[in-house]
Write a structure and sequence with these properties.
Layout lengths: L3 H6 L1 H10 L6 H37 L5 H32 L20 E6 L15 H7 L5 H7 L9 H20 L4 E2 L5 E2 L1 H6 L12 E2 L4 E3 L4 H5 L5 E4 L5 E10 L18 E11 L4 H19 L3 E5 L11 E9 L4 E10 L3 H6 L1 E4 L6 E3 L1 E9 H11 L7 E2 L5 H4 L3 E2 L1
Parallel strand pairs: 2-7, 6-12
Antiparallel strand pairs: 1-9, 3-5, 4-5, 7-8, 8-14, 9-10, 10-11, 11-14, 12-13, 15-16
Helix pairs in contact: 3-4
Length: 425
Amino acid sequence: MLDIKFIRENPELVKKGIKNKNEKDTVDQIIELDEKRRSFIAQVEELKAQRNSASQQIGQIKKSGGDASAQIAEMKRVGDMIADLDKNLSGVEEQLHNLLIWIPNLPNETVPIGKSADDNVEVRQWLPEGFTFENEEKVLDHTELGKKLKILDFERGAKITGSGFPVYMGKGAQLERALINFMLDYHIKDHGYTEVIPPLLVNRESMFGTGQLPKLEEDMYLAEKDDLFTIPTAEVPITNLHRNEILEENQLPINYVGYTACFRREAGSYGKESKGFLRVHQFNKVEMVKLVKPETSYDELESITNDAEDILKALKIPYRILMLCSGDLSFAAAKCYDIETWSPAENKWLEASSCSNFENFQARRANIRYRKTENKKLDFVHTLNGSGLATSRLMVSILENYQTPEGKVIVPEVLQKYTGFKIID
């Protein structure tokens, strides 16, 4: 959430950022309500000062044996005025809050301006030695291959639940579990993260804290009886570990990693682009979350992106990095890199990770602060998260890039000690 003081002092900058994110501009309404709020506060403070003065006069009059009925009546009138103003103030503050929570985070100045994903900028590619985009042999797509090898069953998943809920079978289940364990171990041992196993259900406060609510409520699964949401990403429960807390400066940076299943309704996703793992409602993901000091957050964004890249280099999966343009940024992100892996069968790049810096946007909503060692002042932390990585799209690239002409799959070397086998046939 943006600071109202910042909006008040930089209205044109905020309007520009909102426009560049293709969001609704309510800045003028916010400033008008803020002026009303401050006017009511000033009036209340003035009346309270009058009431305090009258109270002292009444005490002196009574002490001297005089009649203070007129002053008492006046104090009651002032009290009624304060009550009315407090009621009006409460109404204005509610209106103001309801507008502020819909204002997106502003794009960082280094983010390219654009309207959609077509305006994203490729930063770099990484290709394994000997890799070529040209396929001499026909490559089975992951759905055909999964069915042939009896390792993926999308039909039975649809029977059990509905479309977008995959079933992993036999060596497919073992490969998925191996991939998750490999990524967790790598981030813990090589990158220094602390593992977290969080709840898969969260309350509204948690969803609000990381920016999913109110904007994205329709995309989430809700257990209405308990008013709890299934998590769209481990970012939500892990970031909220420190909601309403004050950390010490020497605790930062905090680096967490956790594996969870993730759930997204994403209503309206249909057709060819939805087949198999290309669009699922339940998927597995290893998530990295950082809480850092403001002055280091953009270095940490590069670091968390590199940490995700290390996984793909170890797996020898072709990938590219995109810097998202302003119009493709999420509601809460100030800057984001997408990591896409190559699918030979689809002949295109598939998003497998997003690494974002939210600056203090989430920390303000979740009230996560830290105390500076030098002057003991409080400030909001900066939060970051990165998929390290989501397995569904990554599984597509593994199955297709490691496919043999005979339709078998060679297990990536770094996963073989986790699977206990080298080939799926």
